[in-house]
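Quick one:
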Amino acid sequence: MATILPNSLAFVLMVFPYLIAMIGVLYIFLKQQRRAPTKTERNRFSIFFNIIFWLFNLTGFFLGLFWASFSQPQIWQYTIGMLFQPSTLFICALFFFVIAMPLYAVTFWFYGKQAQRMAIKMFGHI
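Output:
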């Protein structure tokens, strides 16, 4: 989808499910546990959401390749050939860390201070 949509819209569609899931899971957690997550739970949630985010995007990448392969069957060979070059691997790793670290930090913060504020507002205690 990112190839046919404007960049800003594609970015929103890439991050929006992450944010919706993060907020929804926190709300469910607060309702069930009646407390804010501990530091260990915050860490697990952050890692889990990051993994799901990357699986979601890799699925989109491969579905896009599959869709493009109908018009150009050689795209699979080209992509696999380019993917395992050192420069491409370096750029992919850099891209991963530039996006993964802020997502981890935002999730860790949101499940900390924000979750405590929400618990106090919902239940009158942390």
